[in-house]
């Protein structure tokens, strides 16, 4: 039986947490070319390791594991002194671990009876990160501490890359990751021993119902706006994608068109993140306990197209709903809310969403007829009338508090 009580507390001892810090980096043209080649060589290493595993199992029934492939790295580097040998050994091990984690997740899905999703080869547009597992091993954060005005990160094979350090860094740097987003480069630092910043207790608890018309509706009746950033940029994206479709593959104009589309999507992503951070922070400041539905967003946004033999129904409507759910960014919102709740010392509880929108918050009567429209709730038993999302949020809060009390009494 699944445990729906999930407070998501991962603080380390001494009131500290692990946190990631993301900074824009400003490589020179030569450094940008080196970073691009670094990504390409790590992508080729990933694909070669995947092919090694596939071939060994298909032809000999042998399962290749991370330890064996890691041991082969020394020979690979020796045979390619001007290629793979240029980069950090530990970063290449991290790439092999990335593949190993993909296989571990694959076998876990098979065992659980879910869609397996066998690990796939990475195309050039599908491999945009390289990780260095330990600060000082092939990389160095703040590599020139004596510099009067700038921060640099040193990466083996690339050099000292300037960092736009827009906020102070906290804790101890453990891992360093370089990420490419469109034509921009970022460094992501995973830091341990970041001191938590608990907020004063408010004595209040709230349930939230995620939606499309509003990002979230609280049990107190407040609605957090859903700006629909993707919808707002739809016209510009359509124009940019149409221009991209007319360009010849491999041409310079096509590369510029691709960059234009990527830049528009990146802007939408930044807008969504900014709004999500503000909405999550408002909840964490006002409430000691936040209860939300434990949603399976990947299942909810699965395509309804079906197969040729069994085509789906209402495909266009389902496609529009999927787009609206993804534009709202529920998954990003819940992830950021969990991080902020952890740092502030708040409790986050995830509950089973079953029937929360059909049950009456006053008498408990549950029937699909209670939900008159998307926004209106009218109980057929007691006549209670309320906004449907507010009614659902009250049910979510009640369920979460009951789970919390049962867990504390056990």
From TrEMBL:
Segments forming domain Probable transposase IS891/IS1136/IS1341: 197-303
This protein's record includes keyword Hydrolase: no
Ranges for domain Transposase putative helix-turn-helix: 18-59
Source organism of the structure: Nonomuraea africana
Limits of the Cas12f1-like TNB domain: 330-396
Homology family: In the N-terminal section; belongs to the transposase 2 family.
Entry protein name: Transposase
Keywords: DNA recombination, DNA-binding, Metal-binding, Transposition, Zinc
One Pfam family hit: HTH_OrfB_IS605
Domain of life the protein comes from: Bacteria
């Amino acid at each position: 039986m699944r445990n729906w009580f999930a407070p998501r507390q991962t603080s380390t001892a001494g009131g500290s947490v692990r946190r990631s810090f993301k900074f824009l980096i400003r490589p020179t043209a030569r450094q940008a070319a080196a970073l691009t080649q670094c990504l390409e060589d790590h992508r080729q290493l990933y694909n070669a390791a995947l092919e090694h595993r596939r071939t060994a199992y298909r032809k000999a029934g042998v399962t290749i594991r991370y330890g064996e492939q890691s041991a082969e790295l020394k020979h690979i580097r020796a045979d390619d002194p001007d290629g793979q040998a240029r980069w950090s050994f530990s970063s290449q091990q991290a790439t092999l671990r990335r593949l190993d984690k993909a296989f571990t997740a694959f076998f876990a899905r098979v065992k659980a009876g879910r869609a397996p999703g066998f690990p796939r080869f990475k195309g050039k547009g599908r491999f945009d990160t390289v990780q260095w597992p330990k600060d000082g091993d092939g990389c160095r954060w703040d590599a020139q501490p004596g510099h009067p005005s700038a921060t640099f990160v040193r990466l083996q094979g690339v050099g000292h890359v300037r960092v736009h350090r827009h906020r102070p860094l906290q804790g101890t740097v453990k891992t360093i990751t370089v990420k490419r987003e469109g034509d921009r480069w970022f460094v992501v630092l995973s830091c341990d021993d970041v001191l938590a910043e608990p907020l004063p207790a408010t004595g209040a608890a709230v349930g939230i119902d995620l939606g499309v018309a509003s990002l979230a509706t609280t049990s107190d009746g407040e609605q957090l706006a859903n700006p629909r950033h993707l919808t707002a940029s739809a016209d510009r994206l359509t124009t940019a994608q149409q221009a991209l479709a007319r360009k010849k593959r491999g041409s310079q104009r096509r590369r510029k068109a691709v960059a234009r589309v990527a830049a528009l999507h990146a802007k939408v992503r930044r807008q969504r993140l900014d709004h999500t951070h503000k909405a999550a922070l408002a909840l964490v400041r006002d409430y000691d306990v936040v209860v939300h539905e434990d949603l399976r967003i990947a299942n909810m946004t699965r395509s309804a197209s079906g197969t040729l033999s069994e085509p789906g129904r209402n495909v266009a409507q389902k496609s529009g709903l999927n787009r609206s759910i993804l534009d709202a960014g529920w998954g990003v919102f819940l992830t950021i809310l969990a991080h902020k709740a952890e740092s502030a010392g708040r409790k986050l509880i995830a509950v089973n969403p079953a029937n929360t929108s059909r049950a009456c918050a006053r008498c408990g009567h549950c029937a699909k007829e209670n939900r008159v429209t998307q926004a209106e709730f009218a109980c057929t038993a007691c006549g209670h009338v309320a906004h449907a999302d507010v009614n659902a949020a009250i049910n979510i809060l009640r369920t979460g508090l009951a789970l919390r009390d049962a867990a504390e009494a056990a």
